[in-house]
Amino acid sequence: MRQTFQQARVQRATPSSRIAMSLCVIVLVGLVTMPWWASSGNIRWAIELSCYVAIAQMWNLLAGYAGLVSVGQQAFIGVAGYMLFVLAQNFGVNPFVAVILSLIAPAVLAVPTYLLLRRLDGPYFAIGTWVVAEAVRLATSNIDYLNAGAGLTLRVMTQYSQHEREVAFVILCAMLLIATIGGSYWLLRSRIGLALTAMRDNPVAASSQGVNVGQLRFLIFVAAAVGTGFAGAIYYMAQLRITPAAGFDPFWASMSIFIVMVGGIGAIEGAIVGALIYFFADRLFGEFGSAYLIVLGLLTLVIALYARGGVWGLLRHLGDHPWFPVQRKLVLEDKS
Predict the structure, then answer these.
(1) Torsion angle of alpha carbons 138, 144, 147, 151, nearest 10°?
(2) Which contiguous run of DSSP H or E holds residue 5?
(3) Helix (H) or strand (E) holding 329
(4) pLDDT in tens, 183-223
(5) Are 16 and 323 in contact (CB under 8 A)?
């Protein structure tokens, strides 16, 4: 009897993934029905947490798989937010429709940004993304049509009752989570996901096996920009106001890095765990100001040095029970 290897196949659904999928459905149903049972404050928290999860998930896909470490994702948050405000306030587009149309802005910005920075690598690419974000912020601050540094206010939202706004917000948040988490899961289980994993482990070897590394990185960069912009548009529509300082705040990049590093880079579950840690830590300890931020920075440093897999990596040491199984394993076939 001898054994032969067949091609690597994606890991099938496991008991833990079935439980996780069931919980995801429950969370989405609970999110969409919140206007009928939750307070306005809790709905605002749900909107904020959804945006954190989505932005972190997009940064995780970008850095954890495409190998593109960006510290300028706030550029896509800002341009999507501003396009939403301009479409709704200046052109009379329904603001909830304008959220979807605003995704054109980050997609358009992502194309020349990547073409400009694609030859850079590592820290040079990261610095380049920050420079682009700052350039867009400065340009926005000097455009009179956008009210320059004073920002814009979404006054058209007064046409809708609070209940109508809350219903629309939770539906948009559900769409955001499905698009970012569900889209990442679908992508990583596809053939593209196999190419992404190979590219993450060794870009040169992946290229030698026929993976178009440059094209794949470009597609992931644009997709991450659109997903990030989607979250930004929802976030600032809920805030009813946007300014260059807020929309293009480097805080968004540092938050994404913290969430993914602490939660676990290169894992869908890691971004979710990290977002939950950050959200509740912010609620419990945010009042301590600079001391709280120092603690977050030290925690990130400790995780980077001693637990590079993050909290999710530590949990996996206790047992490999993936919520979103995307790993591939060689299938053995016995032949007599």
Answers:
(1) -10
(2) strand 2-10
(3) strand 328-335
(4) 999 888 888 888 887 787 778 777 877 788 888 999 999 99
(5) yes
Q: Tokens 């052109």: give the residue.
A: 91
* In the block, residue with structure tokens 């968004």: 252
Q: What is the CA radius of gyration of the chain?
A: 21
Measured in residues, the chain has a length of 336
List alpha helices for 36-103, DSSP H: 40-64, 74-85, 95-101
The residue among 271, 178, 224, 189 whose CA lies nearest residue 67 is 224
Q: In sequence order, what are the residues at sequence separation of 6 or more whose Cβ sits closer than 8 angstroms to the Cβ of residue 103?
A: 80, 226, 229, 230, 233
Distance separating the N- and C-terminal Cα atoms of the chain: 4
Residues 6+ away with beta carbon under 8 Å from 172: 96, 99, 234
* Structure tokens, 260: 């993914």
Cβ pair 248, 233 in contact under 8 A: no
Which is nearest to 196 in space by CA: 218, 221, 226, 216?
216
Measured CA to CA, the distance from residue 296 to residue 313 in angstroms comes to 19
Q: Whose structure tokens read 């992404």?
A: 196
Nearest to 286 by CA among 12, 48, 33, 24: 48
The conformation of residue 102, written as its DSSP 8-state character, comes to T
Q: Nearest CA to 266 among 188, 175, 329?
A: 188
Any idea what DSSP says for residue 327?
A: -
pLDDT digits (tens, 9 = 90+) for 289-303: 777 778 888 888 888
Alpha-carbon dihedral angle through residues 51, 54, 58, 59, given to the nearest 10 degrees: 60
The two structure tokens encoding residue 289: 């100001």
At 37, the amino acid letter reads W
- Buried b / exposed e over 25-61, threshold 16 CB at 10 Å, is eeebeebeebbeebeeeebeebbbbbbbbbbbbbbbb
Predicted TM-score of the model (pTM): 0.92
